Amino acid sequence: MDMRETPGVTPPHPAPDVFGHVGYQLKRAHAALRAAMDQALRAHGLTVPQYSCLEVLAARPGMSNADLARATFVSRQSMNVVLRGLQDAGLLTRPATVETGRARPATLTGEGRRRLRAAQEAVYAIEARLVRAVHEDRLPALLADLDRMARALSD
């Protein structure tokens, strides 16, 4: 038997091997995006999770740790570390206490908005490279397909 074959298992779609699978190609694209972002953000003194947190807070100020964790695809524990680092760097503020509940809403500082704008230039240039790799007529369909794929695994 060929070592590449698994008896009784049918591949999800025709592909000569794992390198042609959708999941592998998605992971490959994600790894390339992450590496490019890591490199670009280093010049701004930010990590990808820190940048993502700043982006989300700019769009939706006042989000809680749990909401930020979900929106940036990290654990709540990791988001605690990210928030503490951003707060220590003066890029966001959170109240020391809240009147009700435990959620301490985070808000960008002026320096946080400035650092985000500078980093956005680098990150948006990377995204532009991604977008240019797809014919403009196909981009809306690609985005819709990616959304459906994520939903299919989340349902």
Helix/strand layout:
Blueprint: H1 22-42, H2 48-59, H3 65-72, H4 76-88, E1 92-93, E2 107-108, H5 110-132, H6 139-154
Antiparallel strand pairs: 1-2
Helix pairs in contact: 1-5, 2-3, 2-5, 3-4
What does this structure look like?
Residues 19-151 form the HTH marR-type domain. It holds the Pfam family MarR_2. It comes from Streptomyces tremellae. The protein has one domain (23-154): Arc Repressor Mutant, subunit A, CATH 1.10.10. Helix content is 60%, strand content 3%. The protein has helices at 22-42, 48-59, 65-72, 76-88, 110-132, 139-154; strands at 92-93, 107-108. The chain is globular and about 60 Å long. The model has no long low-confidence stretch (mean pLDDT 90).
- Quaternary class: single chain
Low-confidence stretches: none
Relative helix content: 55-70%
**What is the string of SSEs from the N terminus onward?**
HHHHEEHH
Which structural category do the helix and sheet elements fall into? mainly alpha
- Per DSSP, what share of the residues sits in E-state strands of 2 or more residues? under 5%
Q: For the largest beta sheet, what order do the strands appear in spatially?
A: 1-2
Task: Please outline the major beta sheet.
Answer: 2 strands, antiparallel
- CATH class, named Mainly Alpha
Q: What gyration radius follows from the Cα positions, in whole Å? A: 20 Å
Would you tell me the overall average pLDDT? 90
The end-to-end span amounts to: 37 Å
CATH architecture level-2 label = Orthogonal Bundle
CATH evolutionary superfamily: Winged helix-like DNA-binding domain superfamily/Winged helix DNA-binding domain
What is the count of distinct domains? 1
Instruction: Please tally the helical runs, counting DSSP H or I stretches of 4 or more residues.
Output: 6
* Overall shape: globular
